[in-house]
Design brief:
Length: 753
């Protein structure tokens, strides 16, 4: 053997070990962690000013409760335990200051408006029970309260109009279980196998047919996961109008297509064999077909978004800054997500953009379904804002914000991570052009936008509320609907009112209508409403007079009055309609912001209906009115339980006043028809169930402001498009090859439910 061979082998082994060690060390280090870069957005915007719109803090809410309990001279019971005959605090929310006061503070250095709360109280324990609204202030140390009910509504709010408290639902449930059901033991045991734990209830609204009624159908379901898809065929109408719970009574009973006077008559008919029994197969606790548990195991991870150099936006208290945008956000107990003082490039374009109402009208051949017209603001779009699941409800790396409320209790509650803010690469260009004629070049801009989102779960439905800010100065308001479809027990001619979803489950047809308030201030406080569209004109070709040309031309019209600016749901609306400023751009055009609506809404309810005025905002796809402090919302939380005498009737806002060169508000209605189908089992998907509106600059700028975006890409055939200084995309392997610092997954959605 060659004596040098062992040395050669040793050297070779050492070299191999060295190479492997280097590879392992390199692999162990992996990509570096992403590091945030200094943000330029921090230099603009004023937190101290945005706080004028900030939601009440838990401490402020507690101070308001303490003040009311000590200064009203009447006992106040915790609403979570209150009987109808008690006095209690239903809710405490921010009293948004008058716009004139706020603008003096924001724009001219005037005094900061007093910080105040709006408290809604139920007075059941007095000779004339009523609902009273108090403004309480100044915060954080209240020293006064004033009754604003008469000023706001023209009179006291009758007690029967009050939204139902959670405690009242519990009391009706207890009445059903201990009083009503005791009258039909054989039926309940033998048909429903009732054991006091295996049924769940869903109520309907409004509660009757006339002002003063408080009669509610309670629909029974199997108490399993996804119970709303498991009707058992029994519905009970409870008269709970009396403030004395002992006087509550069953007014009617419905089972499998037949009506009965009460539970006693139902039991008698069953015992005598005069009932057509349709026994429902008992579902397992997980609901079987209604379970949302995935039917397969997880596999490869879905794509994730991350920010290689950290967020390009900032959130400070209630102020958001993103590129040229700034705005304040808040969460109303009743109407949910709202934005204030929205500015682009430092100039205010809107004072307020807010959700107003979510209406759904159901059809069925069962009494509960056919009488349901839910006005979800009455239940509380903000109150039922749900905690968000990181990575599903919003991108994993989004900024999550806690919200606070005081509703139906004496103590504030916190909903952890119930609002999210994130920048989203929408995966498509905002604009682009590839030139292969004459000169060769490519120019484009990624469509990266900022999204503010909350999700309200009101009963069966989950509403995903988005406000989206684009780099070209456009704003989008969008709502996506998901959740469980409400169902009726399938019997008789049920298929006239929906589709069969399971053995005994009818997916009820329903309409959805969503109303928004958009207070645009385009180039200043005073605006006019202008409509542009297109019409064909017939003309002779100048170079060939014997030939005729159909030529599109621009049509223009100033809409002078509120009546002209109220566009009925099915009417033809100009395709370009915009708020016009008193200033002009470089090219001599009035600066404007255009309203563009995406909607599939049909008739909300026949106008001859006795309750239509309560939802008369839904008559219009768009209505523009003069802004008035006494018309802050298009509806009222009291309209749900007395739509026959509405506390606020939007139709009254439209009275043919002049709207030229005035402070204007646009009321936008979007909606869609939902006919539940088998693919809604177990859950309705957001795809195709999305509606909303866009606010787009229209001659507001001299050119597209997104041309100044740092995200723009441009290179020609003569340039080295592989060079970073020419094409930033060529640098991605260097600038974006990092590992995102994802925080640990947490979720607090099951706390304090």
């Amino acid at each position: 053997m060659n004596p040098k061979l062992p040395y050669v082998l040793l050297v070779g082994a050492a070299v191999i070990i060295f190479i492997l060690s280097c590879m392992l060390l390199s692999r162990g280090r992996g990509s570096p962690s992403c590091e945030s870069q200094p943000s330029t957005v921090e230099e603009t915007g004023s937190v101290s000013q945005s706080l004028v719109f900030a939601d009440l803090t838990p401490e402020e809410m507690a101070q308001v409760v303490r003040y009311l309990r000590g200064n009203l001279g009447v006992p106040l019971v915790d609403a979570s335990r209150a009987k109808p005959s008690d006095n209690c605090i239903a809710s405490v929310d921010l009293q948004v200051p008058a716009k004139a006061e706020v603008l003096r503070f924001l724009d001219t250095g005037g005094a900061r408006p007093a910080r105040e709360a709006l408290a809604v109280l139920y007075f059941g324990n007095q000779p004339e029970p009523n609902v009273t609204e108090y403004v309480v202030g100044p915060l954080p140390t209240p020293a006064y309260h004033r009754d604003v009910t008469v000023r706001k509504y023209g009179g006291k709010v009758p007690y029967h109009r009050r939204p139902m408290l959670g405690s009242e639902y519990k009391q009706v449930g207890a009445f059903l279980e201990t009083v009503a059901f005791a009258a039909a033991p054989s039926f309940l045991q033998e048909v429903l196998e009732y054991d006091s734990t295996n049924v769940a209830f869903q109520t309907t609204a409004p509660h009757g047919f006339h002002s003063g009624d408080r009669k509610s159908w309670f629909i029974l379901f199997q108490n399993v996961s996804g119970f709303l898809l498991h009707p058992v065929g029994l519905e009970v109408l409870v008269d709970h109008s009396s403030l004395d719970i002992s006087r509550w009574a069953v007014s009617r009973v419905f089972y499998n297509g037949q009506y009965y006077r009460d539970m006693v008559q139902l039991e008698s008919a069953y015992v005598q064999g005069r009932i057509s029994v349709e026994k429902v197969r008992k579902a397992p606790r997980d609901g079987d077909f209604s379970s949302m548990k995935p039917r397969v195991n997880s596999a490869a991870l879905f794509p994730l978004q991350y920010e290689p150099q950290g967020p390009r936006y900032s959130v400070r208290n209630n102020l958001v800054l993103f590129q040229a945008w700034s705005f304040a956000f808040g969460m109303s107990v009743s109407t949910g997500l709202r934005l204030f003082d929205i500015r682009h490039k430092g100039e205010r374009v809107a004072y307020e953009i807010s959700v107003q109402e979510a209406l759904s009208v159901y059809g069925s051949n069962c009494p509960g379904g056919m009488s349901t017209r839910y006005m979800d603001g009455s239940f509380g779009l903000g109150r039922y804002t749900s905690p968000l699941v990181r990575g599903v409800d919003c991108p994993y790396s989004a900024t999550y914000v806690d919200t606070h409320s005081l509703s139906e209790t004496l103590r504030p509650s916190t909903r952890k991570a119930s609002l999210c803010i994130f920048e989203q690469n929408l995966g498509s260009p905002l604009r682009r052009h590839y030139s292969n004629l004459q000169s060769l070049y490519y120019g484009g801009l990624v469509n990266s936008a900022l999204v503010v989102r909350s999700i309200a779960t009101v009963g069966n439905y989950d509403y995903v509320w988005d406000f989206i800010f684009y780099q070209n100065g456009a704003i989008e308001g969008k709502v996506q609907a998901t959740g469980y479809p409400s169902s009726s027990f399938l019997h008789g001619d049920g298929l006239r009112y929906g589709n069969r979803l399971w053995e005994h489950t009818l997916g009820m047809i329903r309409t959805h209508a969503i109303n928004y308030k958009v207070d645009l201030d385009v180039g200043g406080l005073k605006n006019s409403l202008v409509a542009h569209d297109m019409a064909f004109e017939m003309t002779r070709a100048p170079w060939s007079p014997e030939q005729q040309i159909e030529r599109p031309r621009l049509t223009k019209k100033v809409l002078d009055t509120e009546d002209q600016a109220a566009f009925r749901l099915q009417s033809k609306m100009p395709r370009y309609i915009y708020f016009a400023a008193n200033s002009k751009n470089k090219w001599g055009h009035q600066r404007g912001y255009r309203i563009q609506i995406t909607s599939f809404a049909g008739d909300h309810i026949p106008e001859a209906s006795s309750m239509e005025r309560a939802i008369s905002w839904a008559r219009y796809q768009l209505a523009v009115t003069r802004r008035k402090e006494e018309e802050p919302t298009s509806t009222s939380i009291y309209n749900q339980n007395d739509p026959w005498t509405p506390t606020v009737a939007f139709a009254n806002f439209i009275n043919n006043e002049t709207i030229t060169n005035e402070d204007l508000v646009a009321w936008i209605t979007t909606g869609f028809l939902h006919i539940p189908h088998s693919e809604d089992i177990p859950n309705t998907v957001t795809v195709g169930n999305s509606v909303g509106f866009l606010l787009r600059p229209y001659n507001y700028y001299d050119l597209d402001p997104s041309i100044y975006s740092h995200d723009g890409v441009f290179f020609t055939s003569e340039q080295d498009f592989m060079a970073c200084e020419i094409n930033p995309l060529a640098c991605l392997p260097k600038t974006a090859s990092c590992l995102p610092n994802f925080p640990p997954f947490t979720y607090d959605g099951f706390q304090n439910t």
